[in-house]
């Protein structure tokens, strides 16, 4: 993803920007929205992996914006984690995972949104969501005045579409909300060290498991803390995590997407 310091720089880096893309950029930038557009001549093919499209966004954090302003150009950067693993939401997560592989970590505090940006393919006449994220589909549709399709896979290569992604070391199993506690206790009885994400509607229930987290009732709070929960289960020695999907509305769509990827087949499986 190429990160820019402001929407006014978009035409310097992308070509043939549709009116719908400009509308979304003007409404949601700075913020957690990434647009897939035709690359401009300033963007080398090495940056786009040989593609004629590029992903671009203007981050909302003041420290990131100050860095981009001081640099005076676009910065192409991936997530600060190993491929396929849980995304970092604090500078401590970055340092713990990457260690001496990076010389400096710019600490702007914990991520405010938690899940990654929404990625919208704006290369054609009809935009579509390639990865749900911090800007909800409902908010996008309200601005565009039309429904938006969500494509879990796409011909356009973008972050987060590998079958296994955002995954902790522990295996993730997804069940219906009313079955989470029973499945967690069954696995614990079989000898697993189980971490369980208890749905808010079952918060008062006692659970026999190695590590128990009650999911926040607010999807914004859940999105902000999801990766923290997954990392903590790993740190506590869990080998299995039992969870359920939230209602796939608002930020719940992004949370469900991340949990499905975390539960996806691992390369070694």
TrEMBL record:
Keywords: ATP-binding, Cytoplasm, Nucleotide-binding, Nucleotidyltransferase, Transferase, tRNA processing
Compartments where located: Cytoplasm
EC numbers on record: 2.7.7.87
Protein's name according to its UniProt entry: Threonylcarbamoyl-AMP synthase
Domain (YrdC-like) ranges: 1-135
Group of enzyme by EC: transferase
GO CC annotations, alphabetized: cytoplasm
Gene Ontology biological process: regulation of translational fidelity; tRNA processing
GO molecular-function term, one example from the UniProt record: ATP binding
């Amino acid at each position: 993803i190429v990160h820019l310091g402001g929407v006014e720089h978009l035409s310097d880096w992308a070509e043939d920007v549709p009116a719908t893309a400009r509308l979304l950029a003007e409404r949601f930038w700075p913020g957690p929205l990434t647009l897939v557009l035709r690359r401009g001549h300033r963007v080398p093919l090495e940056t786009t992996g040989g593609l004629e499209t590029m992903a671009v966004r203007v981050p909302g954090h003041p420290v990131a914006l100050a860095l981009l302003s001081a640099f005076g150009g676009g910065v192409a950067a991936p997530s600060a984690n190993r491929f396929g693993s849980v995304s970092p939401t604090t500078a401590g997560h970055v340092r713990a995972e990457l260690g001496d592989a990076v010389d400096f970590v710019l600490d702007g505090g914990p991520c405010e949104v938690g899940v990654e940006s929404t990625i919208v393919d704006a290369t054609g006449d009809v935009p579509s969501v390639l990865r749900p994220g911090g800007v909800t589909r409902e908010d996008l549709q309200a601005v565009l005045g039309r429904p938006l399709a969500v494509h879990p896979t796409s011909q356009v290569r973008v972050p987060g579409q590998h079958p296994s992604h955002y995954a902790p070391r522990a295996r993730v199993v997804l069940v219906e909300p009313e079955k989470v506690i029973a499945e967690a206790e069954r696995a614990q009885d079989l000898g697993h060290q189980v971490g369980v994400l208890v749905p808010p509607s079952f918060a008062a229930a006692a659970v026999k498991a190695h590590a128990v987290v009650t999911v926040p009732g607010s999807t914004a709070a859940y999105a902000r803390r999801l990766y923290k929960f997954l990392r903590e289960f790993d740190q506590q020695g869990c080998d299995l995590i039992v969870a359920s999907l939230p209602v796939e509305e608002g930020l719940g769509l992004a949370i469900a997407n991340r949990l499905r990827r975390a539960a996806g087949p691992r390369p070694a499986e």
